[in-house]
Amino acid sequence: MGRVTEIKHPLILHKLAIIRDKNTGSKDFRELLEEIATLMAYEVTRDMAVEDVQVETPVAMATCKMLAGKKLAIVPILRAGMGMVDGILKLIPAAKVGHIGLYRNEETLQPVEYFCKLPKDIEEREVIVVDPMLATGGSAADAITLLKKRGATNIKFVGLVAAPEGVAHLTKAHPDVDIYVAAIDERLNEKGYIVPGLGDAGDRLFGTK
Ligand code: PRP
Ligand code: URA
């Protein structure tokens, strides 16, 4: 069963409180989401493989550790997932970025796919799927199914706010996928919004609606 981790670092909690505020505008929303993504990436990459390297310091030879060079891909679910990509790339600049376009049909709440462009060697890469909102979990589960169909086997999901329903759906659909979020909220409302949540992440990020 995949692990579910709520990353409750004080800096993340503080920034998340501001991002939730309905009076926070798009500029601040964007900057804060990027900053939180960077902070989360630190935790998400904790188990990355390292290997011994020999480094000559000004004083002597030292046996040090460096990343073992396992290839990574960051895959945002459009649109709102885009808001987390640059924050993660700050720490892992060599990662490739794929894109999966999904939107929720507002009546059925079912995800509808409209775009998919992935690195050619996606099956060789560790994949980090990013989307700030895990509500019913339908979008994340479908995006991961699509990635598995393309050959990806090593996948993590990183979000900002989740509903318990979304966590349950995703862990059931993809028990091999570790989930990292900053908060698991109370519930979904009748419109499929996370309560208390932060509203529509894509609209707040891009200033639409
Ligand atoms: C939002 C959000 C997730 C999805 C979560 O996207 O960014 O992708 O809803 O809901 P779910 O867990 O119930 O599937 P939306 O469909 O609003 O598209 P957008 O990012 O383009 O605004
Ligand atoms: N998508 C969002 O952007 N917000 C929610 O609360 C649920 C789905």
TrEMBL record:
Could you say which EC number(s) this protein's record lists? 2.4.2.9
Q: How is the cofactor bound?
A: Binds 1 Mg(2+) ion per subunit. The magnesium is bound as Mg-PRPP.
Gene for this protein? upp
Reactions catalysed according to its record:
UMP + diphosphate = 5-phospho-alpha-D-ribose 1-diphosphate + uracil
- Enumerate the residues binding uracil: I194, G199, D200, A201
Q: Where is the Phosphoribosyltransferase domain?
A: 8-208
- Which GO terms of the molecular function aspect are on file? uracil phosphoribosyltransferase activity
Please give the cofactor(s) recorded in the UniProt entry for this protein. Answer: Mg(2+)
Pathway, according to UniProt? Pyrimidine metabolism; UMP biosynthesis via salvage pathway; UMP from uracil: step 1/1
Function of the molecule: Catalyzes the conversion of uracil and 5-phospho-alpha-D-ribose 1-diphosphate (PRPP) to UMP and diphosphate.
The UniProt entry's sequence similarity note says: Belongs to the UPRTase family.
Q: Which Pfam family would be a valid example here?
A: UPRTase
Keywords associated with the record:
Allosteric enzyme, Glycosyltransferase, GTP-binding, Magnesium, Nucleotide-binding, Transferase
Query: Which residues make up the binding site for 5-phospho-alpha-D-ribose 1-diphosphate?
Result: R79, R104, D131, P132, M133, L134, A135, T136, G137, G138, S139, D200
What does the record say about activity regulation?
Answer: Allosterically activated by GTP.
InterPro entries recorded for this chain?
A: PRTase-like, PRTase_dom, Upp_B, UPRT, UPRTase/APRTase
List the protein's name.
Uracil phosphoribosyltransferase
